[in-house]
Structure formats: C-alpha cells, structure tokens
Amino acid sequence: MNFSLDIHDLSPNSARLCLAVEQFIHGQLGFDRASRLLLAVSGGADSSALALILRILAPRLGLELSAMTVNHGLQPDAACTAAAAAAFCARLGIPCTTRTADVAGMAAREHLGLEEAGRHLRYAILAEERRAAEADFIVLGHHCADLTEDILMRLTRGSGWPAMAGMRARDDSRHLLRPLLCCKPHALRSILREYRFVWREDISNTDMRFKRNRMRHAVIPLLYKENPSLDSTMADLWRLAQQDRDYWDKTLAEITARHSWKKDPQGLCLPKEMLQGLHPAVRLRLYHKAVSSLIDGTNGTCHGQARAGTLTALDTALQAGRGETRFQLPGGIEASIHKGSVYFCLPGKLVRHNTMS
Amino acid sequence: MNFSLDIHDLSPNSARLCLAVEQFIHGQLGFDRASRLLLAVSGGADSSALALILRILAPRLGLELSAMTVNHGLQPDAACTAAAAAAFCARLGIPCTTRTADVAGMAAREHLGLEEAGRHLRYAILAEERRAAEADFIVLGHHCADLTEDILMRLTRGSGWPAMAGMRARDDSRHLLRPLLCCKPHALRSILREYRFVWREDISNTDMRFKRNRMRHAVIPLLYKENPSLDSTMADLWRLAQQDRDYWDKTLAEITARHSWKKDPQGLCLPKEMLQGLHPAVRLRLYHKAVSSLIDGTNGTCHGQARAGTLTALDTALQAGRGETRFQLPGGIEASIHKGSVYFCLPGKLVRHNTMS
C-alpha cells in the first residue's frame, strides 16, 4: 500500500466525510465495536467509497472487514467488473470473494423483472456468504440520492407510512447496514478521486428499461428544480419515518405483550380480543407486523410488501363485520376474517380457523 | 329550468358519481342534515360539477346552498369568467355573489407569488362571505387528481407525516369541506357534458410559471406511466394519513388533558413536565399542534406550515440539552428552549420565559 489510510492524513473534506459516517454509525446504526462486516462491492463508485471509508474507520471502530462481489452475468464485461472490484479490495487489504449469479435464469424461472431478480439473488447470495463468513452484518453502499429515489418509488408503488420513507439504515432481521445514507454521491466520488482510485460506471444505470433509472433520470431532476435541497428534505422525511417506525414498534410490542398472536406453520392469527378497542391506525400497523413476521419466517421463499390500500380494505371489512371476504397480499399470503379475528395464511396453506382461534 | 335535477333521471354513470359523493359525505365529512353550504365556484369544470352534484344531492341531504365567485383580475377575461360562473349558478337556482380581489396588489405588498397571494386572498374573502351568509361551511371542488398534485408538492416542500398526505376533506378550524376528493376529474366533466353544460378552461392551468402546473403537466404524467392507478394509490395514502391524523389528535388530546400547555398573547409554552417521558415521535406532533394553534389564533395574519426537518432539529436540541438555540418557523414564529420547556413565540413578540413557565 503506497498511500495512507490514517484519517489524519486526509484532506479536510474527506476527513469530514469519514467523520460524518462515523457519527451516523454511532447515532443511527449503533452496532458493537469489533463487529465483523461483509461489504457488498461492485466496482462502482458507491461501494468502492464504502470500502475505502470503512477501511479508514476500521481501526477507530474496531471493525473486521471482508467483501464480496456478485457477478450478475448480465453485461458482456460483468466478469471484468467483478475482477476490478476484487482488485480494489485487495489494494485496501480487504479479503474479497467473488460469486456468480444466474439472474437471467432466475428472472425467467420465477417470472420476475431482471431488476427484481437481480436484487433477490444478490441478497440471497450475500446472506449465504455472511453466514459462511460468520459476519455480523452485510454492509451496503446506498447514499442519500438512493434514499430519494427509493422514497419516490415507494410512494408511486403504494407503500404506507412509515414504510414509504425508505430503506432502513440498520435492518436486524436481514442483518443489513447502510452507513452511507447520510452521504451525497458527489462526496463519495471526491474521496475516491483524492486517492486517485478509479471506479467503473455501471452502464445499466442509464438503462431506461429499469424503473429506478427512469425515476433517477426523468422524474427526480424535475423535483430538484422545485427544491434544490431535495436530498436533505427527503433525509428529513426519512428520519421522521425512522422515529415513527420506532414508535410503532414500541406501541405494538406493548399490545402483543398483553394479547399474544397465534402462529403455526400455516399462518398467523390476530385474535378478536387483541384487535378490540384499538384505533384503526394501530390495527393497520398490527396487520403489517403480522405480514412481515410471516414473510421473515419463510427465509426468503416468500417476499414483498403489503400495499397500504389492501390492509385498509381488510380493516374496513373487519369493522363492517364482513366475515367471508379474502384479501390477496404480496408473496401469495391470504388474509381472511372469522368471528372478529384476522387470519394471515401462507401461500398453499389452508387456514384452519378453528384450531388457531 | 328545462332539465331534471332528480337523481333518478340521471344516466347510470352520473347517478353512480352522485351516490359516491353522497357516500363520501356520510363517511368522511359527516356534517349535519340541513347544513348551509357556501360553494366556491369559478366557472371551471371542477367547481361547476361541484355545484351541479350538490344541487342534485341537496334535497336528499337537506342542504341549503349559496355560491360565491371571486374575480382575481389576473386575466383579461376575468370579469367574463366570473359572470359565467354566476350565470351557471343561476341556471341551477343557486344564489351567487361575485367579489373582486386585487391579487396582484396583495402579491406585491406582501412579497408573495401570484399563486400564493391568490390562494390566501380567495380564502380570506370566502371566509368573510361565509360569516356574512351565516353558512356552516365553504365547499371546494378539489378532486382526486388535485390530491395527487398536492401530495407531490407537499413531499417536495418537506411536509412531515401525516401533513404530507394532503388536504383535509373536512377542516373545522377553517370551515372547509371538499366532497369531491373521491372523484376523478373525467367523471366530473362527463356529468357536465350529460347536461350539455359548458365550462371555461382556466388558461392559467397551463401556465408553467406556476409550480402546481409544472407538477401536473411535467412530473405526474411520468409517475402515471409507472403506476396507471396513481390516483387510487394516492387516495389510499390520503386515507391512511387521515386515520393517522385522527390517531395523533386523540393521543395529543390525552396528553394535553393531563398537562396543559400555557398560552398567552405572545405565544405558547410546552412545559418540561409535559414533554418528559414522551417518545420523540409524540413530541414532534405536539410541536406541530402548538404551531398550528398559534397560527390559527392569528385569524389569517400569520400562515404557513412547519417543515418536518425544522421541528426535528428543535427536538434534537432539546434532547441534547442545548438551551440557547432559536429556530425560525413559518409565519415568523420563533421556537426556543429554556430549562427543558419549549416556547413558540409569535412574530414581533418577545418570549417571556419567566412569566410563561
């Protein structure tokens, strides 16, 4: 290594960036010293900056780093890009594994878009590697412009609140960390330039067949014209959502401590006594929690996020005493009402109202 | 009148539209039978359909209708448009008053954009007329596409949740009703066409100097391409927000019943005992409620809506025990912290920490 990774040797701007990430880690992520982190790297600017910044912070935070790059095989130079990511990690002294993923095959098999198939497969491989490497967390390079895109996409898709305001900085159920959510993308490129590190521009980032790119290149520039501080505004909304998420987690924990729900391999039941007397806003969050709990329990074979409108319709049916309506939720989960209790049933399972209630 | 206003004589589509509005009135607005309503009409399609639909529903709901049109004087044919609105009401047998507003003058005097000045002045004149006519509510013709625009504009501007998800269907502090929020604009035009009623297209609706029009004509069509049911998706989000608003109203009412805040002509104080032990998500809503209460008390001389980010920064300062920071809120309101209590002070007033706490 012919360069210094000591924070004291950085330019003021780069030092400030690293310290902002350190502060975000302390304030929002709060993981333990001496954590083992698996970095997801692609050879692009964001994940390269992630590796560099965490490598600089590693001695200060007592981190043990390893990395992994997934060759999606979608572009002709995919193997080359994966090799560049591995070489970048080698220069930083971070051990890096390369894995190949058949995204096109999965997309065809499971009738998914390339974007969605790529995301599911990448997370599945990262999760496997995390367990193999005995790492505490997978670390992703999402930054504040990704947050803005994510909020717009969730808003358009019909996520409710607080899910709408974007991805988590720390997701314990999936062992994910996103320490760069406080960073602007140009700052990440600046620190790479300061080290004269080169990165590869992912050509798929300009492919307008992908919804994320249409948001990034067509919609968001128009919103920036209305509000040049759009990223900060979205970051404020994100912080509010994290706070609300924490509030609802605590409120629901109190309720499920009083009246526990009933779970079996077929599904989950929210008993009548639990739902009675609750404000509709609380019931809605209980439904969300129940669906997430079911989805989390399938270890990735079932995925998706319930639209706010579907769960509201379920609650309207409950309030109106309409017993026999069934509601289709993402991942093939089915919701139904029986004698004032609400049932969520996994795909292909038969709900047994009698044994569960 | 050479046409029938009996709902039984309408085409099935128009009857369905009227019944949907009636159902929305029962479910979301819940005002009393025999209410006196002042309709804001402009000669445009939305408010003309509002007048027609409410005229059809009036005997069923026992409504007493009057109308008012405001001549903004901004376009050369403004007087003509106001006259057309009045003539339309006359055909329906609804008494209509015309008032003239000097929007350009107010914009220059108060350093506001034409759009903002027009909105403030229109609401002020309508409020005056409502009191003079002893009407219970002012009724506005906003429909579900306006809701979508409004959500996008609030999101971009930095409104928090639930304020972000749009205008109220019923606003008791301003005596406003919006019974068409459940309607699609093309359905409103269809019922007018069925009656062979003509309406005037407001040429300012295509003026791209106005932010609302840039949202309507440039941003929203791109989002429709991603989600052709965007209006329904936004209506779902809106319903969720109304539910959450109700939840927070009730939760805050319980808190302010236990520990009341202190209000005097200078401003308002949230005492330390009230704030202690509350979740940050609750404290944030208390700040919002306090600011709204101050703004409402000024009878329109002070307006605006606090950005989520500013109130979060105030709360962070409170938690960190930073006493001497001051925060500028909309309408010139200033927030400050003193010995664990939070003060909101009206513009030009001096906060007196000692007498209030």
Automatic annotation (TrEMBL), chains A, B:
The protein's matches in Pfam families, at most eight in alphabetical order, are given as:
ATP_bind_3
Q: For binding ATP, which residues are annotated in this chain's numbering?
A: S42, G43, G44, A45, D46, S47
User: Looking at the UniProt record for this protein, which Gene Ontology cellular component terms does it annotate, in alphabetical order?
Assistant: cytoplasm
Can you tell which superkingdom this protein's organism belongs to?
A: Bacteria
Biological processes, Gene Ontology terms: tRNA modification
**Coiled-coil stretches:** none
Reaction(s) catalysed by this chain, per the record, are:
cytidine(34) in tRNA(Ile2) + L-lysine + ATP = lysidine(34) in tRNA(Ile2) + AMP + diphosphate + H(+)
Location within or outside the cell: Cytoplasm
Which EC number(s) does the record attach to this protein? 6.3.4.19
In this chain the tRNA(Ile)-lysidine/2-thiocytidine synthase N-terminal domain maps to 37-217
The protein's UniProt keywords, in alphabetical order, are: ATP-binding, Cytoplasm, Ligase, Nucleotide-binding, tRNA processing
Q: What is its main location?
A: cytoplasm
- Tell me the Gene3D superfamilies matching this sequence: HUPs (3.40.50.620)
Q: Name one GO molecular function term.
A: ATP binding
What's this protein's family per the entry?
Belongs to the tRNA(Ile)-lysidine synthase family.
Question: What is the annotated role of this protein in its UniProt record?
Answer: Ligates lysine onto the cytidine present at position 34 of the AUA codon-specific tRNA(Ile) that contains the anticodon CAU, in an ATP-dependent manner. Cytidine is converted to lysidine, thus changing the amino acid specificity of the tRNA from methionine to isoleucine.
Q: Which HAMAP family does the annotation name?
A: tRNA_Ile_lys_synt (MF_01161)
Q: What is known of its domains?
A: The N-terminal region contains the highly conserved SGGXDS motif, predicted to be a P-loop motif involved in ATP binding.
| Name of the protein | tRNA(Ile)-lysidine synthase
Could you tell me which species this protein originates from?
A: Candidatus Desulfovibrio trichonymphae
Q: Upper lineage ranks?
A: Bacteria, Pseudomonadati, Thermodesulfobacteriota, Desulfovibrionia, Desulfovibrionales
